[in-house]
Each structure stands twice: as C-alpha cells, then as structure tokens.
Amino acid sequence: MPVDWGKPDGERFDLRLARRKATDPGARVGAMVFGPGGPGDSGVERIVGKGNMRRFSDNLRSRFDIVSFDPRGVGISNPIRCTQERLGRRPPTVIKSQAAFDATVKYNRDLREDCRRNTEKGLFDHVDTLSMVKDLDAIRAALGERSLTFHGSSYGTLLGEQYAERYPKRIRALALESVVDHSLGTRKFLATSAATLQDSFDEFVAWCGRTKSCALHGSDVRALWANLLDRAERGELWHNGTVLAPFDLNVLVMKRLYDPEWARLAKFLQELSESKAGTERVVAEGDGGKPEPALGANPFEIFCQDWSLPVRDYEDYARELRRVAKIAPDMKYPRALMSLSACLGAPAPDNPQHRLKVRNSRPILLTNSLHDPATGYDWATNVAGQLGRNAVLHTYQGWGHGTYSSSPCAQKTVDDYLISLKVPARGASCPAVEPTG
C-alpha cells in the first residue's frame, strides 16, 4: 500500500492479511472482510489465532472466505514503534494539577517525535482511518470482489462508516457492530462514555441484587465499590502486588463488563475488598524476568489522528472531570479519559470528527447492545440518524460490548443480512440473554 495515499507512487509498505476459505465452496457467496477494533487489534490474529474463528458462525464460515488484516501501524503491518523506556514513562492518566497537565502535553510531544523516528517508512503520520478506508478498498479489489461485504466491530465500525461515505456504490453489505459515533466533541465524548459505563455498572449491581450466585449478593455493592475507590485514591489498594490507581481500577471493572463477566467481576471485587497492602512485585505470567525489548508498539496514535478532543488547560480539564463524576458517580474514571490525556497537545488531525454524509448506499446494518459499557446505545442511535434511510438499527436488549456472540437471535440477524442481504425491520430487536459467567 502507499504510505501516503496522496502520493500513490511514493513510499510503500506491506499490509498483512489472513484468509480462511469458505468451508462449503459450492455455496460460497464471496469474501467477507472483518474490520478489527481497538484501535490496535490484530485482524490477522483474529483469523489465524487459536480459537479466534469462533467469532464467526459455522453458517458464515461455510458461505464466505473470512478475511481480516492488521491495519496500517498495527501488529505486523509496519507497526508504530517507540522506545520502550519512553513508553514506560507515560504520566498518570488522571491529571491533578496544571504542572501535571503541562508535563503530559510535553510527554505526548516527545513521544510523538520518538515514535515518528522509530516507525519505518514514514508511516507514523499516515495511520488515520481515512487512509485505512483506501486500504480497505484496495483489499476489496485484490480479492476480486466487485462490491464489499464487511463486518466491522467497535472501532472497526468507524472504518465501515467512512468507507460508506467515500464508496457508497461499492457496498454489497456493511454490518457495523457496537457502533462508534465520530461526530462528538470533547464534552459529549466524555459524557456519553461515562454514562454508558455507569449504566453497565448499574446493570451489574441489579444482577447481584437478584442473583444468589453473585458473590456479593446481599451486600451493599455500591458501598463496597465506594470503599475500594476511596482506598485507590489514597494509594492503599493493591492488586497483584502493585498499587492500583483509581483509573486502573475502573478499567479492570470495565473489561469484565464487556462479555459481561458478572460472576467474575463480583468475585474480583470481593477479593479486592478483602485484600491487604503488599510490597512484593508479582511477576506476570510470561514475564520470566527477561529484559524488555528496545522498541514497543503504540497503536493509540491512530485514535489521535482520528479525533480532536481539545482541552485548554487544567482548569478546563478539572471542569470536565467534575461533570463526568456527576454523570457517573460510581464510574467517574472512564477509559475515555485516556483518550483525552494521550492526545493532549496533538496537532489537528487529518480525519477530524464530523456528521456522516452517505448518499444512496445499499442498506447498512447497525447492531448494538442496549447496555454496552464502551459504545453506548445512544452512539448507535445517533449514527443511525446520520445515515437516515441508508441504515437500519437492530437492537440487542441485553448487555455487553458486542451483539454477534451475545445471543443466537442476534447472530442470526447479522448472518441473514451478510449472506442473503435480508434487512431486519426498523425497530426490530432480540431479547436479552441472562449472562451465565
């Protein structure tokens, strides 16, 4: 692929793909491209990694070659590289003073220069999603497909949305699962991210209240959580031998809300509440005490080239923190804060937020959980509004980040659309399936 699509005859890099051929060649529809999330997820690993093909139903695998890729700057597609030592000096995500704000801006600037120096072929400045849109169309052409069949998940939905903007006539089917809304400014981005995480936590608390298999059943879950958060604020909460900061505690909870893994989350919170401060470092599995490599990956730069989330100074930042705490009194440190701090001081992106403008495409399927901890249902409804008659939003009435693996009903809806171009009725939904794990 060209490093810079504005200079198609310039420097090039290798974009890595993987394909599993249709298991029933006689019934083959074509090739379906899966758009990985993140940003930073490996689509190649999704195809070749052990057990990862379970992401796709047997029906889908029989009818399509399943293809995915490592996006530019990710995995083995000319990854963004930075010195490990500099990556290891990242400031705390939650900023607590003007001095810390200024230090974060300086760190981000220095890190960008370091990554730019260490990333091969000058790719560092060309990892935005608009560049990936052209990569995706080149993949379509290389597969011999006249029109694209695409299933994007989470951040991969942004790739699908912007492909529809640029190439609406080249779409056969576009299924976007757990929808990213790329029209939001700083305030709305933080507010909606906090609200959807709080909603998922509320659903977990309600489950614990009605389910005896919850390790915290009969307990005041919110009081226990407030105590954990208070201990983390004081630097007195330990996990795996290290101090757990409030932001990191929130992220650990968020990850367990993805599937959701409510039973594991309850046990995790119970164990944390009973934990004592420790001093010995616990070596993570696979660490082995080996020295870290000289260079490490930093795919988060993709986000900074797609989003402009300006904050003037610490006073402005602290105002946003207070607003988030009102919206999400339990989950007041959403992962979206990392998006904010990691991009402070970044230059204006080539692919800034805007409302989608898609003209006369084939019907696009949007699918979202009603209670999604990462890409809230309101993001999906907002994107559906932007797409208008070009899209149909199908709702999974349950929980978790993703719908395809959440219920047989949701999976069948997506499969029917991708295979037979069967579009669900507007307002259609699948009932919730109570999580078992």
Automatic annotation (TrEMBL):
<dbReference type="InterPro" id="IPR051601">
    <property type="entry name" value="Serine_prot/Carboxylest_S33"/>
</dbReference>
<dbReference type="InterPro" id="IPR000073">
    <property type="entry name" value="AB_hydrolase_1"/>
</dbReference>
<comment type="similarity">
    <text>Belongs to the peptidase S33 family.</text>
</comment>
<keyword id="KW-0378">Hydrolase</keyword>
<keyword id="KW-0732">Signal</keyword>
<feature type="domain" description="AB hydrolase-1">
    <location>
        <begin position="31"/>
        <end position="228"/>
    </location>
</feature>
<dbReference type="GO" id="GO:0016787">
    <property type="term" value="F:hydrolase activity"/>
</dbReference>
<dbReference type="InterPro" id="IPR029058">
    <property type="entry name" value="AB_hydrolase_fold"/>
</dbReference>
<dbReference type="Pfam" id="PF08386">
    <property type="entry name" value="Abhydrolase_4"/>
</dbReference>
<protein>
    <submittedName>
        <fullName>Putative Carboxylesterase A</fullName>
    </submittedName>
</protein>
<dbReference type="Pfam" id="PF00561">
    <property type="entry name" value="Abhydrolase_1"/>
</dbReference>
<dbReference type="InterPro" id="IPR013595">
    <property type="entry name" value="Pept_S33_TAP-like_C"/>
</dbReference>
<feature type="domain" description="Peptidase S33 tripeptidyl aminopeptidase-like C-terminal">
    <location>
        <begin position="340"/>
        <end position="430"/>
    </location>
</feature>
